[in-house]
Design brief:
Layout (H helix, E strand, L loop, with lengths): L3 E6 L6 H7 L2 E3 L2 E4 L2 E4 L8 H9 L4 E4 L3 H12 L4 E6 L7 H15 L5 E5 L4 H16 L4 H11 L3 E7 L3 H5 L5 H9 L2 E7 L5 E8 L1 H15 L10 E5 L3 H14 L8 E4 L2 H7 L3 E7 L6
Parallel strand pairs: 1-2, 1-6, 6-7, 11-12
Antiparallel strand pairs: 3-4, 3-5, 8-9, 8-13, 9-10, 11-13
Helix pairs in contact: 3-4, 9-10
Length: about 300
Amino acid sequence: MCEYILSCCSSADLSKEHLKEAGIRYICPRFSLDDRLYTDNFGRDVGYEELYDAISEGAETKTTQLNIMDYYEYFNYFLEDGFDVLHVTISSGLSGAYGSAKAAAEMAAEQYPERKVFVLDSLCASSGYGLFMDELAKMKKEGVCIDELFAWGEKNRLKLNHWFFSTDLSSYIKGGRISKAAGIFGGVLNICPLLNMNREGRLKPREKVRTKNKVIEKIVDKMEEYARDGLKYDGKCYISMSACEEDARRVAELVKARFKKLEAPVLINNIGATIGCHTGPGTVALFFWGREREN
């Protein structure tokens, strides 16, 4: 009998209802908006539209990762009830969550030596992290035990492909990811940077594409190039977006038109505050299973 909890953070950018149906428990990180602290709780504290409107109007945003005691108390909640825990974190290339959760797990293991507490670095983000969690949840329901699931996750996490583009460079300029001069130049030329996630779980700029129409086409070209079995890909495909639903739907329609064997309809989610505070509005991300990521 495999009695254990599968868990993640709300920054997996799936809905609360989706996580509940999948049997995935979660903990919510925090963020600040103009120095006021909120929880990244599926848009309940601050709605997605409100968040991105505020960022567009120049609000100061900052993410605050959960600390060791946050995770320790969270794990104890399940351990006290006799469950083992497999907690999966957002990529260590983007956040210190893995280090804090790992330290908390070691503390909890000392208190509950008869229990297992695993912490897995997903090397994923946003709904790519969510798609990874969905596969783990499916395997758990099929009876895969905690040790096997942890090992499978470590072995296969780099097969979860992430591709992003942004049509609004404001937050990238503000956060220092691109220079002000480059941002202004890019805006004049309608350049939309195309990025993906590398082997270290960090966002890596890959191409500068002129015009939104071309980058929407290009991101689906990347799926055709990298997806498992190419156009015969029959897995799931998720999209997340920040206040640009029309762009996300255009990507989804192109994916649906090219990939006839998808396991399920393309799922579009909102990018939550953990990622959105850094990308700002205008970002679309595409996730699918495919070739192992490169650097």
